[in-house]
Design brief:
By secondary structure, this protein is of the alpha/beta class. The protein is built from eight helices and four strands; from the N terminus they run αβαβααβαααβα. It has helices spanning about 5-10, 35-45, 55-65, 70-95, 110-115, 120-125, 130-135, 165-175, and strands spanning about 25-30, 50-55, 100-105, 135-145. Helix 3 packs across helix 4 (about 70-95). The relative contact order is 0.21. It binds zinc ion (ZN).
Length: about 180
Amino acid sequence: MTDPSLADARRRTCECAAASHAPRLVAVTGGPGAGKTAVLEIARRSLCNHVVVLPEAASIVFGGGFPRRPSVPARRAAQRAIFQVQTELERVVLDEKRAAIGLCDRGTVDSVAYWPEPVADLWKDVHSEEATQLARYSAVIHLRTPSDVMGYDHSNPLRTEPVEDALHLDRLIEQA
Ligand SMILES: [Zn+2]
């Protein structure tokens, strides 16, 4: 893996010289193993510096040691934490106004797919509503999880779902 700062230094410049922008958020989502990370890496390397790619909130939360347990209270706590991290990551882009596009590795509404029913409790807990959260994004790009036959990748250590669960999650994310 190359040093991100070196990759950034080689980033293409463009003709836009505006000092600030009104950033728009675009969520790139999809089930586990859909290829989001690879697609976002290509975007980060090949698009101009007015497009910033946000890190995935769930990777920050779980990679940072947040307990990943199957109990309902633990799953709810994890999704609230992910929701807050995602919101603050997006806010950096929105408030700095340096980028024109913030490409998000999943969006706040992804939590719906991982939240133990009922979903209304999620919106109550984070003091928001689905319509408000959907309105944050100018576009949502959904990448499909491939089936086992199509080459589901089992090598990611943070990816704990078997392929059937991954496909089920992919459908839940699509619905959300
Ligand atoms: Zn540009």
